[in-house]
Amino acid sequence: MRDAVHWLVVLAEEENVTAAADRLGLTQPTLSRMLARLERSLGQQLFDRQGRRITLNDKGRGYVDHVRRADAELALAEQSLRVDQPRVIRFGFLHSFGTWLVPALIGRARTRDPGLRFELVQGAADEMGRRVLDGSLDLAVVSPRPTDAALAWRLIRRQHLHLALPRDHPLAASTRLRMADLRGETFVGLEQGYGMRRLLDSACAAAGFEPTIAFECQELSTVAGLVGAGVGVALLPVEDAPHYPAGVVTVPLDGTDTARDIGVVWARRRSLPTHALAVRDLLRSS
């Protein structure tokens, strides 16, 4: 029964008929005919075609949102028939998601399926991606979007990034700053391999300089604490600012909407167990 809707969810994720057909174990012509039949029966075109790429149009997005919910409910229904089988999800995430995003997800998932068990792993974005691909993790929440095409990705939300400075810094009273204004400053950042470090390096490179790193660590809370202590400046999510030490001031970047995309990843070429699919589908863009 679930096959009747799941193919459309996969097609919307892949935005490519050939890639979706590969995931589903179908031929490309078969999947194209399925889509054509559905659109004829609805009397609406759900996708805009751009060469080999297809993207959901406004009507398609609304329709597929309902289909995703139906797909997730059917996955849970199938799962309920296998109550004697252990349902374990191997789930990875960045350290900075451990205080809000992941606990909320686990709470929602266990409310829907009390027998579900999570095996949790924290680490850098690059490490989480590697572990998903080698099969030691089913899902991972990472940022930014991985560049490896073998990883499928679904956007969950965007976090806006501001510059964080010590309260007594000469630029702390600024209403806006350019990244170039921080040339020559000393930065506090995460270690190489972490998504926020990649974003910092990219932002500095776009401004024409390489950051001088005073201290590398693994936690954004540590970065904020060291900024407050005057060790250096940093690029940090502004949504986390209420939790930063009193000695930290955040200033928006001028002329750019610098943000980090947060999303869930899974291995494109490997099928997920039904209970993992249900959890993945709880993670929706906000």
Automatic annotation (TrEMBL):
Record-linked SUPFAM superfamilies: Periplasmic binding protein-like II, Winged helix' DNA-binding domain
Organism: Metallococcus carri
One GO molecular-function entry: DNA binding
Domain of life: Bacteria
Gene3D superfamilies assigned to the protein according to its UniProt record, in alphabetical order: 3.40.190.290, Winged helix-like DNA-binding domain superfamily/Winged helix DNA-binding domain
GO CC aspect terms: protein-DNA complex
Name of this protein: LysR family transcriptional regulator
Regions that span the bilayer: none
Species lineage: Bacteria, Bacillati, Actinomycetota, Actinomycetes, Micrococcales
Keywords in alphabetical order: DNA-binding, Transcription, Transcription regulation
Family: Belongs to the LysR transcriptional regulatory family.
Keyword DNA-binding (UniProt): yes
InterPro entries assigned to the protein according to its UniProt record, in alphabetical order: LysR_HTH_N, LysR_subst-bd, WH-like_DNA-bd_sf, WH_DNA-bd_sf
HTH lysR-type domain sequence ranges: 8-57
PANTHER family assigned: HTH-TYPE TRANSCRIPTIONAL REGULATOR CYNR, TRANSCRIPTIONAL DUAL REGULATOR HCAR-RELATED
